[in-house]
Amino acid sequence: MAFWNRRRSIDVLTAPREGPALKKTLGWPHLIALGVGAIVGTGILTLIGEGAGLAGPGVMVSFALAGLVCACAALAYAELSTMMPAAGSAYTYSYAVLGEALAWIVGWSLILEYSLVVSAVAVGWSGYAVGFLEGLGLQLPAALAAGPQLDFSQGFVAALQGWNPAAGLVNLAAVFIIVVVTGLLLLGTRESATLNAVLVVVKILALVLFVVLALPAFNLQNFVPFLPEGFGAPTFPFQEQLTGRPPMETGVMAAAAIIFFAFYGFDAISTAAEETKNPSRDLAIGIVGSMVACTALYLIVAAAAIGASPPATFAESGEPLAFILRQLNQPVAAQILGAAAVIALPTVILAFLFGQTRIFLSMGRDGLLPRGLAKVSERGVPVAVTIFTAIVVSILAGVMTLGDLASLANAGTLAAFFAVGLSLIVLRLRDPNRPRVFRAPLFWLVGIITMVGCVIFFFSLRTSTQVAFVIWNVIGLAIYLAWSARNSRLAKGEETAA
């Protein structure tokens, strides 16, 4: 069978495995906590400033649009994950529904997504950590408080020539927190999930505190004009050279493409499928429940933030919510919020580092990556791949900026969500009678909104991000054609294709 037609059997991929396996220790409360822990983080605590800078008060619409697309994607994930409760998330579903070649692209995109999310959140955490330490009278040297602030818009050489090492050499705090979270993950899944649940409560209480203190200063005039940059328009690589029209990289859609980063942590839940006690029930509860809770919370916090302070005043801050509280003469509350972020933002790092290792694990099992990556310790932890991933994301967090990391991470996520929306529709048409514990309502509409939304958001990203994503996948396809297509389990006949 040609590699582009090879598909994994759903029955085979969900069958029990021999040897050390991931331990089933998680219930739906753990999954909701994992989802909320992954979703509520850098997006609302840090990227709300960048989104407000792109769209002004219209960032409220950006949150709503991103939430709509992610809600549809969540419904698709809930149906597919309960049918195929195996580690691997969108990669695994694509392998069973769309075939090996497309599954590779999705898996390769997920590697990009999860790695960059971990790095981006670590950089966001660093901003709050540095601000918190400064409130205590401690100040890190500027060279160790941020990575190189390189502007690649004028080219690689010009970026290096404009670099000032004294202003940013390595983000030491970001590297530090990744090391700490990696150590926690190596202890075991249940232990890390329990601590994650406690820290999620801390994070939610901090946001509630912000809303309570910001609402008395609410001013409707801060929402006028509501759409100062308009909705924006999709962009594409080399647009100016081909059309003579420069790309429009501001507005509601540009902000939504970045704000999208704030919502998609729910897909980390699906990577925990093999470690869930009752996946047919608990996965759907975890995915849909975490999305509903977080969307409502986001809109409330965003409205309170803009109502208390014009977007232009906090758009450039690395800790916008704490910045707003200081403007409201609430220094103690700002310090509490900063402390809560320092304590609780690592839950996002934990959730995505957890998910990243499970993507590597699944691709290693299938032979698309070296099979050594699929080894699991007696504690049920993929030790080698966890340490390897931590090293890579630490390097990225140490040298890249938050905006660059979040934008490129979104590109990988959009590819994965598009594949999940497509897989939902294809599997409903191909295998309509297969048992489904959870059925997404109006599956045609859910799938189409997911796919169309992902395409629009992708072309609302920075042109440089689109180009970088294409380059990443060209490299990935070269690896697949040169090695993975010949070494997969299906290629070697170790597993019967569907």
Written description of the protein model:
The protein is an all-alpha fold and 498 residues long. The protein has a single domain (24-149, 169-487), classed as Up-down Bundle (Amino acid/polyamine transporter I), CATH 1.20.1740. 66% of the residues lie in helices and 0% in strands. It contains 23 helices and no strands. The longest helix is centred in the first third of the chain and has 36 residues, at 100-135.
Report a brief summary of the structure.
The protein is mainly alpha-helical. It has helices at 10-13, 28-39, 42-45, 47-55, 59-83, 90-97, 100-135, 142-145, 156-161, 172-187, 189-214, 239-243, 252-259, 267-270, 279-308, 311-314, 320-327, 331-344, 346-365, 383-399, 402-430, 443-458, 463-487.
- Outline, from the CA principal axes? globular
The secondary structure category is mainly alpha
Percentage of residues in strands: under 5%
CATH superfamily: Amino acid/polyamine transporter I
Element order: H for helix, E for strand: HHHHHHHHHHHHHHHHHHHHHHH
- Could you please say which CATH topology applies here? Amino acid/polyamine transporter I
Rg from Cα: 22 Å
The span between the termini is 11 Å
Poorly predicted segments: none
The chain-level mean pLDDT equals 80
Helical content band: 55-70%
In CATH terms, what is the architecture?
Up-down Bundle
Q: Give the count of structural domains.
A: 1
Output the CATH class name.
Mainly Alpha
Question: Got a strand count?
Answer: 0
